[in-house]
Design brief:
Layout: H1 3-22, H2 35-47, H3 50-65, H4 77-102, E1 110-113, E2 119-122, H5 124-129, H6 132-147, H7 150-162, H8 168-191, H9 196-209, E3 218-219, H10 227-234, H11 251-283
Antiparallel strand pairs: 1-2, 1-3
Helix pairs in contact: 1-3, 1-4, 2-8, 3-11, 4-7, 6-8, 6-9, 7-8, 9-10
Length: 285
Amino acid sequence: MERESLLAMLIILFGGLALQLFAKWPGRINVKSGSRSLERLHYLAVWWPAAPALTVAAWLCGWALSQPDPVPERVGYLLFVAAVPFAIVGGRALLRALWSLCRSPRRYGIATVGVLRPRIVVAPELEQTLDPRALQAALAHERTHLRHYDPLRIWLAQFVTDLQWPSASAHARLTRWLASLELARDDEARAGGVEGADLAAAVLGSLRYQMGSTSAVATLIGQPEALSARIARLLQPLPSTATATGEDPPYHIVAGGLATVWAVAIALGLSCGEPLIGSLLALSY
């Protein structure tokens, strides 16, 4: 069998299995932190189950580098059958991601749209309805989404969550992150001079115009389930932790650690992957 084709099938099988196993991790963040840091921790939680799958893929790539093309071993049908469910989940995630890019925009009051070139859109009807101060507060909130490329981040988070379908824990992690995202952007806008009451009025005005969506756009409404707590928070003074610095997750340490693990996985695949994969291929028919 062609080496690259076998590698792709093994990654689908074992990478998909690792994703499904680690998708059960609840990913709850029980730390006291500023809204900005909490949002980024929740975003890491959305992605963390993918790390074992990528480690498995790195190990398999290391094994493939040591193999001739085509692979001389016979590949049994059982491997193909076992990989089918994971291929279906991956295909579903890819189709949903492509559909979210290609479909026509829904009816939004005010939102940041565009995955690669984000922009703010405001419905003329909402613009005429909102108080000028509320409208400026809404625009300030959306500009924070624009600065952080949040539509792209939402699209990627939705994709990695779909790869873990039908895990309820994966969906819960995404929901918690989306809720924390809106709180972080609220606090960022308020730290820039926006009044919480004006932003709350904008959120409620936008809600009356259009209910929230889970598309790859950053809407002012955010998650409807967390709306009451969000409004109550906006009507309170800005938390002192909202503008705190130095609390961000240690991304350089996380990235360095993952890069080291993946390098070791590739090396192990090169040195000792053949006996394991050879045994697996022998048992598959």
